[in-house]
Amino acid sequence: MNLVSSNAKILVTGGSGFMGSSFIRYLLGSPDFTGKIINYDLLTYAVHPGSLKAIETSPKYKFIQGDVTSSSHLETLFSTEEIDAVVHFAAQTHVDRSIEGPSVFMETNIRGTFTLLELVRKYPHVHFHHISTDEVYGSLGESGAFYEHSSYRPNSPYAASKAASDHLVRAYANTYQISTTISHASNNYGPYQFPEKFIPLMIRNCIEGKKLPIYGSGRNIRDWLFVEDHARAIWMILQKGRKGEVYNIAGGRELSNLELLEKIFLLLSYELNIPKEQWEKQKEFVSDRKGHDFRYFLDPAKIQKEIGFFPKVSLETGLQKTVRWMIKQMQRKTYKTVLKSNP
User: Is 135 a catalytic residue?
Assistant: First the structure.
């Protein structure tokens, strides 16, 4: 039996954000989905205005602006919209911002999750899927992997806030017997990502001729997952997963920041017909981030075996799509850039 049916009415929190909008586009683009999506989003700084333009007039889509900490607003929504499931993306996510000002992370990520869980407790037929991160597990050395049962060792205020929200979901599932699932994902990337994250920041700064800030030695390692693959994995969990389970979603492609930047240089050189040496000169090694985790890697065995999820988009293909999308965006916005015409 599916946790969430194909004709369900799904509340997507943070659905205008990078990952949430990808999930909505994926689901509304699937002929098998006959239900309805209600996008509940506060529309903060990181939202790209065009991320949902293609589907905003769909009869299967509805947008409501609101804060996940507003229990009265959400109570009205639950009672009037007959929600069947919640997919909870809404969160503050940027580690640097959490170091500078952790308060909003505690409010949105912890209190927001608590507010939603309290409502699901009142409406126990609703399934609750919680989007989490690999950062809750802490840092790995040169080898090894995190598993669904690995101990939590968060090292930033952001990671701690997500770890706390994970614990709330587990506790509510155990205490109140509500239906939940949790997923942790590798670093997502792709079109519509706000350029405070590594990949879009490097692409934008390359094109604009700005410095390319690299933390420490640039040897920190991440596993990369194309955002469309992440969206597909979440829907597969909702279709094939088991109540109360946790699933780790891996991209299966580890690179150091310097290795990833080299791939970005090569792609930009090809797309813009500019020697990559131009961008090499823009590198700037800066003081390392406080509490910077060295490496994350999620073991994908459980989601592969139980659900049959494997990434479809290679890193090379996903990066090419991302680079081409960002070039078009910057051309349309007439930024002052170093762009040259292709022959």
Answer: yes
